[in-house]
TrEMBL record:
One protein family per Pfam: EF-hand_7
Protein name: CAPSL protein
Keyword terms, alphabetized: Calcium, Metal-binding, Repeat
One GO MF term attached to the UniProt entry: calcium ion binding
Domain EF-hand: 40-75, 76-111, 112-147
Xref: Gene3D superfamilies: EF-hand
Domain of life: Eukaryota
Classification via SMART domains: EFh (SM00054)
InterPro entries for this protein: Ca-bind, EF-hand-dom_pair, EF_Hand_1_Ca_BS, EF_hand_dom
Amino acid sequence: QMPGTARHDREMAIQAKRNLSKTTDPVERLRLKCLARGSAGIKGLGRVFRVMDDDNSRTLDFKEFVKGLNDYAMMIDKEEAQEIFRIFDKDGSGTIDFDEFLVTLRPPMSNARKEIIMQAFRKLDKTGDGVITIEDLRGVYNAKHHPKYQNGDWTEDQVFRAFLDNFDSPYDKDGKVTTEEFMNYYAGVSASIDTDVYFIVMMKNAWKL
């Protein structure tokens, strides 16, 4: 289990569900619907869009956008979907750039928070290739403390894989975590933490930075 994240995750999901009833802003509502699924919620929607992007254009038209939301079981009526789409289709071309969409959907974070998240990422990314894998974790994360390793249920690699699955997308776990996925995950955690100071202390303790 990730240090300090399961509890934050639950708190954040509960908070997001609560705030949903208060907000009328369509982008904020979609953000909260994703966060109500936990820290990996926004990242999961990104993965769904990526799978749908057959021609690798990194753009979606309205039909694909709605299909993606439906595939991810986001119940949104057509008017609200159109409103969101219009907000992101700034040039009126009929398509939206989904990287831009996901960055905007991510809860905003201060530079101080982004910086500490990147420090943690760099510490885990031993090979420095911008992706965290099982190989990277061997030198950084001690699997032997994990209860399932201690009672013989899991091998070291299974512990590592479970660890990576925390940050990986719920519907398409590939055992690799990119900078973007790590950022998206912690944007979710960050949403439940009011002050930068507390967030930074939590990250420093969790990752021994």
